[in-house]
């Protein structure tokens, strides 16, 4: 094998590269010096071996070059859909990332409590929790001549409450069922923690005070309601009244006894399931 034969594959590759560059630049192809060597060598090989077909003719070089280009174009077409798909995924990804913060709850912020329902003139009264209680134990405060200390069952819970009734109600009468405002904020009275208030009727000069009593047979712990509007009394109350809202201060001036000794709120009768709330003798009086 002569020297040209040894380098024939390399020369053929170089001729192919030159042809590609000429075509990409729009230059007419002209055989390079390499083609002449390839052609000469091929002729010599054919002369020495007639069975060997002619190779590396300029037309063959052109055909081989076109085949290489077709393969490259086919590869590019295969890569293009993949690149397009990857691009679309990248474009969609930011949109998904933008949606995620909308789904995530904001941290560090407390949920806003729902606004209380509006029950017209009864809105403040509904927030106040007045229940039937039963006196279980009563004793005089050791350091006060005005206070009774009481243990009162309000239905599943016994509350300790202090009442300034020593000068008005004999301790013998401090028995049975009474009305208790149960969601007042607890406070100390003469050092005794009072968790509620016993409701009483009193005259204008506050010289006569009587316990308000629920209708006989009332259930301990049941809630006092407004006759004709019982349906608004569900869970519409506050566990502990907020002094800043002043619900009790708005309700108290409208709590009175009528001419029939019955408890009313702004003229509307207050009842339990067994009937009206009554005072023993005080008509048209304040309740507090």
TrEMBL record:
It comes from the Eukaryota. PROSITE patterns: TRBD. Residues 38-120 are annotated as: Disordered. Residues 63-102 have a biased composition (Basic and acidic residues). Keywords: RNA-binding, tRNA-binding. Pfam families: tRNA_bind. InterPro entries: tRNA-bd_dom, Tyrosine-tRNA_ligase_regulator. Residues 51-62 have a biased composition (Low complexity). GO terms for molecular function: tRNA binding. PANTHER family: AMINOACYL TRNA SYNTHASE COMPLEX-INTERACTING MULTIFUNCTIONAL PROTEIN 1, TRNA-AMINOACYLATION COFACTOR ARC1 FAMILY MEMBER. This is tRNA-binding domain-containing protein. It comes from Paramecium primaurelia.
């Amino acid at each position: 094998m002569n020297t040209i034969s040894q380098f024939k594959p390399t020369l053929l590759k170089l001729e192919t590269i030159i042809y590609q560059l000429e075509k990409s630049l729009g230059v007419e192809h002209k055989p390079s010096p390499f083609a002449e060597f390839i052609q000469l060598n091929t002729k010599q090989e054919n002369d020495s071996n007639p069975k060997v077909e002619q190779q590396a003719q300029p037309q063959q070089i052109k055909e081989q070059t076109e085949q290489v280009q077709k393969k490259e174009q086919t590869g590019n077409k295969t890569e293009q859909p993949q690149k397009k798909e990857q691009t679309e995924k990248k474009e969609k990804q930011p949109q998904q990332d933008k949606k995620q913060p909308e789904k995530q709850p904001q941290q560090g912020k407390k949920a806003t409590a729902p606004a209380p329902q509006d029950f017209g003139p009864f809105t403040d009264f509904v927030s106040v929790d007045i229940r039937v209680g039963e006196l279980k134990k009563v004793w005089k405060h050791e350091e006060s001549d005005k206070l009774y200390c009481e243990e009162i069952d309000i239905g599943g819970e016994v509350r300790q409450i202090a009442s300034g009734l020593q000068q008005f109600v004999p301790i013998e009468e401090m028995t049975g069922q009474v009305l208790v405002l149960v969601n007042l904020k607890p406070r100390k009275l003469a050092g005794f923690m009072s968790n509620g208030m016993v409701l009483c009727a009193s005259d204008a000069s506050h010289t006569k005070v009587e316990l308000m009593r629920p209708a006989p047979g009332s259930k301990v712990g049941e809630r006092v309601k407004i006759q004709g509007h019982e349906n608004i009394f569900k869970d519409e109350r506050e566990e502990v009244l907020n002094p800043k809202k002043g619900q009790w201060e708005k309700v108290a001036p409208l709590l009175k006894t009528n001419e029939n000794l019955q408890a009313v709120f702004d003229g509307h009768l207050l009842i339990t399931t067994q009937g009206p709330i009554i005072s023993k003798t005080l008509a048209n009086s304040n309740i507090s």
